[in-house]
Write a structure and sequence with these properties.
alpha/beta; 5-stranded parallel beta sheet; 4 helices; 5 strands
């Protein structure tokens, strides 16, 4: 199962750990989070990102996500891709300030431990 991960650079340490754990469970992250984008090549980067989103079985949005994640979410919604919004800390996800996309039938929200996220992924994709 392949996924596209939308996040912010500030989450690097947690993201690396998450990607590693998910890989042991058979989930392959399509985007290389170790590479930094080059401003002179933004068109190619954008096209490559779109292709990865199209290829992904689901999109994982790791909060707090960067400003580019809004495009990722919008494009994934247009493609009717499964989207998992995940925050290891509950304060990053405010139920009272939900965005309209959270009400879409193919959007799931999870906060808490990586184990909780793994259980959710298993129930969503195996059930």
């Amino acid at each position: 199962m392949q996924y596209y991960l939308a996040t912010d650079e500030k989450n690097k340490k947690q993201v690396r750990s998450l990607v590693k754990k998910l890989k042991t469970r058979g989930y392959n992250c399509l985007n290389d989070l170790s590479q930094t984008s080059c401003k002179s090549n933004t068109v190619n980067i954008g096209e490559s990102e779109e292709q990865m989103i199209e290829k992904a079985d689901f999109i994982l949005v790791f909060l707090k996500a960067g400003k580019g994640s809004l495009y990722t979410i919008g494009y994934a919604l247009a493609l009717k891709k499964k989207i998992i919004v995940y925050s290891p800390e509950k304060e990053h996800y405010h139920l009272g300030k939900k965005s309209i996309f959270h009400n879409m039938p193919y959007v799931d929200i999870c906060s808490g431990t990586f184990y909780k996220l793994e259980k959710m992924l298993h129930s969503v994709f195996v059930a």
